[in-house]
Specification:
With about 180 residues, this protein is of the alpha+beta class. Helix content is about 15%, strand content about 20%. This is Rieske (2Fe-2S) protein.
């Protein structure tokens, strides 16, 4: 084999190895970007719980406070991170669906509608996604107030149960995450 042919063969093998090394990570990304709808996660009467699984009582948060909550786990239900915030009811306006609020509480999907990252940062009265800096206003239906997000964070309808805990009264009012718009 001539030196030039050997170099071509070696370059081809190296190139194929590089492409193959990308296959596994790219296959994993398919699950992120091609999520299939599996049915509602929240439903009527599903309690909201914190990261430790404690149900959220009506008096848990003071005005201006927030917490990440989830549906109480049941077989077959995946965790769905949700931002729960409390403000005086008179502070809500804009796109907030007031029928979905309870006792000053409003709940919105924590999954950004741009690329599916977790909205985590609070800057004053807005939430910010750390990936591409989408900004959302929880007092106005988690509407987009900056960045590349194409739509508001979906709101979760909630109420206070007869025993004083926050529960969902249905699923999110719009598709959760990126690409649902």
């Amino acid at each position: 084999m001539r030196r030039r042919d050997y170099a071509k063969a070696l370059a081809t093998v190296d190139g194929l190895t590089a492409v193959a090394s990308l296959a596994a990570p790219l296959a994993g990304l398919q699950r992120v970007f091609e999520r299939e709808y599996t049915g509602p996660v929240f439903g009527d009467g599903v309690p909201l719980v914190d990261a430790e699984g404690e149900r959220i009582r009506e008096d848990r948060l003071k005005n201006g406070e927030q917490i990440t909550v989830f549906p109480e786990l049941r077989p077959g239900i995946e965790r769905a991170p949700t931002l729960l915030v409390r403000f005086p009811e008179s502070d809500y306006g804009g796109d907030t669906e007031m029928a979905f609020t309870a006792g000053g509480y409003a709940a919105y999907s924590k999954i950004c509608t741009h690329a599916g990252c977790m909205v985590a940062n609070r800057k004053g009265d807005t939430w910010e996604c750390p990936c591409h800096y989408g900004k959302f206003d929880p007092k106005s239906g988690a509407s987009v107030v900056g960045g590349p997000a194409p739509r508001s964070l979906p709101q979760l309808p909630i109420t206070v149960s007869s025993d004083g805990y926050l529960v969902a009264t249905g699923d999110f009012e719009a598709p959760v995450g990126a690409g649902g718009g």
